[in-house]
Amino acid sequence: MKLSKIRYFLIFMGPILTITIIFYFMIGWCIYISMTDWRSARVSMKFVGLRNYFDVVQSREFYVSLINNIQWIALFMLPTTFLGLVIAYLIILTGKETIFRTIFLLPTAISMVVAGTLWVWMYATNGGINTLLRMIGLGSLARPWLSDPRTALYALIFVTVWQYLGFSIIVFEAAIKGIDRTLIEAAVVDGASGFQVFRYVILPQVRHGFLIAVPLLGLSALKVFDVVFVATRGGPGISTYVLAYYMWVKAFWWRFMADGAAIAVILLLLSLVLVIPYATYALRRWFG
User: Fold this and answer.
1) Is residue 66 part of a domain?
2) Does a structural domain hold residue 2?
3) How confident is the model at residue 54 (pLDDT cuts 50, 70, 90)?
4) Is 106 in contact with 247 (CB distance < 8 Å)?
5) How many domains does the chain have?
6) What angle in degrees, to the nearest 10, is found between the helix axes of 112-123 and 152-177?
7) CATH code for position 193
8) Are 34 and 52 in contact (CB under 8 A)?
9) For residue 79, is the peptide bond before it cis, meaning its omega torsion is within 30 degrees of 0?
10) What is the pLDDT of residues 213-269, one digit of tens each?
11) Residue 49: which region, alpha, beta or left (left: phi > 0; alpha: psi -120 to 50)?
12) With the C-alpha atoms ordered 166, 172, 178, 183, is the resulting torsion angle positive or negative?
């Protein structure tokens, strides 16, 4: 009986423990590499302490990347969360949930590489957006969206909003459906309008939806890489650099592996800034 329990434990927990050990080993290895002098194709493990971190954070590319990431988090997370909640509520009101859920979930099913390629075509000088603007008499607004440093970053942020909106809608749709129907019915009987039901009944009851959506969307914005790589390669200039892309440039383009590892560690620390408050609140809510 004891051998059988050990066997089942190894079958189910063995893969999890293996992946966990590899995961934390790779984090430790990355931290170690970030403190070495590996700055060329030739491997060098000479310990230099925090020198690489100081060099990275003092660079203009890092400053631009950090600012762009902050903008990305704010301009991606807030509208995606708000629109997801509002659209989820409107979908439930229409009763056509299957149709609208499919429409909004389709972009989520597309990989970011495919989405980036699609929107490169849409944003092209003679692409879909500029063609549409000219057709409706707004040709003065047409511009090379990804070639203009003033619009390139915001064009890419819109792509991520478009792709992740379906995820936000599903989260809040599930949260709204979990509300006790008697609360909504009582508000309607008391004469509350649709907006008042949303404001005073729905919104306070979907906090757990925010607890799921906000941290996950924030982390997605913080680690964004593929759409930048596919659409702009950080350009024009460095106007669309983000930390993950700058890490790739340092590590695999310039061959400064130690600098790339340092940026990866900084990204890890920034991720913990988002995750720890979420985890603390969740643990207090569920087990406190």
Assistant:
1) yes
2) no
3) very high
4) no
5) 1
6) 130
7) 1.10.3720.10
8) yes
9) no
10) 988 899 999 999 999 999 999 999 999 999 999 999 999 999 999 999 999 999 999
11) left
12) negative
Question: Does any domain span residue 189?
Answer: yes
User: What are residue 47's phi and psi, to 5 degrees?
Assistant: -75, 130
Residue 260 in tokens: 């790339």
Residue 129 pLDDT class (50, 70, 90 cuts): very high
Q: Is the dihedral of CA 199, 200, 202, 206 positive or negative?
A: positive
Residue corresponding to tokens 């019915």: 185
Helices (H), the chain: 2-33, 51-57, 60-94, 97-109, 112-123, 128-135, 152-177, 181-189, 194-197, 203-205, 207-222, 226-231, 243-248, 257-287
Q: What is the mean pLDDT of residues 107-125?
A: 91
Report yes or no: 263 and 250 within 8 Å, Cβ to Cβ: yes
What is d(CA 271, CA 225) in angstroms, rounded to the nearest whole number?
A: 15
Other Cβ atoms within 10 Å of 191 Cβ, number: 7
Question: 3-class DSSP state for residue 224?
Answer: coil
CB-CB contact of 259 with 55 (8 Å):
yes
**239: phi then psi, degrees, rounded to nearest 5:** -70, -20
Q: Which amino acid is at 154?
A: Y
**C-alpha dihedral, 248 to 253 to 257 to 258, nearest 10°:** -80
- Report the C-alpha gap between 211 and 207 in whole angstroms: 6
Please state the pTM of the whole predicted model. Answer: 0.90
Backbone angles phi, psi at 224, to 5 degrees: -60, 135
Which two three-digit tokens encode residue 72? 């990305």
Q: Which two tokens stand for residue 160?
A: 């991520």
Question: Could you tell me the two tokens for 243?
Answer: 């930390």
The Cα angle at residue 242 between residues 238 and 244, in degrees rounded to 5:
125
- As a whole number of angstroms, the distance between CA 159 and CA 220 comes to 13
Range of the domain at 119: 58-287
Report which residue type is found at 56.
V
Question: Could you tell me if residue 93 is inside a domain?
Answer: yes
